Every structure is written in structure tokens, then in C-alpha cells.
Amino acid sequence: MQVQNKAIAHMKSFLKYTLATVFGVFIALLMLGVLLFFTVLGLVSSKTHQTVTVKDNSVLELHLDYTITERSQADFLSFFSPDGENKSMGLDKILLVLEQAKNDPKIKGILMHTNVTGTGYATIQEIRNALMKFKSNGKFIYTTAPYYDEKNYYLASVADSIFIEPSGNI
User: Fold this and answer.
1) How many CB atoms lie within 10 A of CB 19?
2) Strand positions, DSSP E, the chain
3) Which residues share a beta bridge with 67?
4) What does the alpha-carbon distance between residue 54 and residue 153 come to, in Å, rounded to a whole number?
5) What is the pTM of this model?
6) Least confident piece of the model among 25-34, 41-50, 85-94, 150-159
7) What share of the chain is helix, strand, coil (3-state, %, to 5)?
8) Among the listed ranges 15-29, 34-48, 80-94, 100-114, which one has the minimum average pLDDT value?
9) Where are the beta strands (DSSP E) in 18-147?
10) Given pLDDT bands bounded at 50, 70 and 90, which one contains residue 80?
11) What is the pLDDT of residues 94-147, one digit of tens each?
12) Which class for 53: exposed (0-12), middle (13-18), buried (19 or more C-beta within 10 A)?
């Protein structure tokens, strides 16, 4: 009988410590989740409230060396990328930026880096048309690329000057 009582006492002690450990792990994970939530919230809010000031005689540097989608999407994981940039951008955002730059008297021209891949001709044509409107305000466009295939050269053909890397080809 005494052995049974000791076994029951050990079992109660075991269950008490096991439940306390499980509860402690639960509380720790909950606190870690709250900390992670506020960290991500801080990252998101710091990225979305950046103000850009444009100085006189500025040149817009336009990087078109990624996949261009039809619409921009809020990519949650892009906040954790090492360079902080999206690897795709929506056509809507590009056209908006070009329209704003066209009407901004402080922006005198564009330096465009092209290396578009995975983008259709209709999208390239939309961007090219927006670049022609930008140019119609008396502003210049220079373009550079590591190489020019048909799409990249068609996009670059609107530019005043086209540059290619020394090891590049057309």
C-alpha cells in the first residue's frame, strides 16, 4: 500500500511539473509572438511612410531589370529581403511614377536600366508610350543594359542615348 501511495505521489508531482512546463512554454511562445508582431508592424510602418524629396536638376533612376506584373502587390516577405527591394513591380506603379516625373519641374531626365525578362510586349509598349510622353515635356532619357534583346531594345529605342556594357551584345 505504501508503494502505491508513493507511486501516486510521484505521478501527481510529475503531472504538476509537466503541466507547469507546458504552461510556461505556452506563455513564452505567446510573448515571442507578440514581440514578433510588433517588430513586423514597425518594419511595415517604417517602409510605408518614407518621404522622398527631389532636389533641383534631378535625374530619375529607373530600374526595369525585373519582372513587371500588371498590378503592384503588397509583398509581405519583401520587407525581409536583404536589399529591401521587390523583385517585381506593377505596371500601374511604373506608369504613376513616370507621370509624376513628367510633371515635376525638378526632374530633368531619366537614367533607365533595362533588362526586362518575363514581361510581355503589351506591357513594354505601355511603358514605352509613357516614356514618350515624359520626353514630350523636353526631358531626356538615357538607357543602359548588359545586353539588348528585342524587348529591351524596343524599350530603349525611345531614349536619347543608348549605352551597353563593354561585354554586352545586341
Assistant:
1) 10
2) 58-64, 67-69, 88-90, 107-114, 140-145, 161-164
3) 88
4) 29
5) 0.64
6) 41-50
7) 50, 20, 30
8) 80-94
9) 58-64, 67-69, 88-90, 107-114, 140-145
10) very low
11) 999 999 999 999 999 999 998 887 788 898 999 999 999 999 989 999 999 998
12) exposed
Per the structure block, which three cell numbers stand in for 25?
A: 512554454
Please report, to the nearest 10 degrees, the dihedral formed by the alpha carbons of residues 10, 16, 20, 21 taken in order. 30
Three-class secondary structure of residue 59 per DSSP = strand
Q: How many CB atoms lie within 10 A of CB 105?
A: 9
> Rounded to the nearest 10 degrees, how much is the dihedral formed by the CA atoms of 68, 95, 169, 119?
30
Q: How many residues does the chain have?
A: 170
For 73-100, letters b (16+ CB in 10 Å) and e give eeeeeeeeeeeeebeebbbeebeeebee
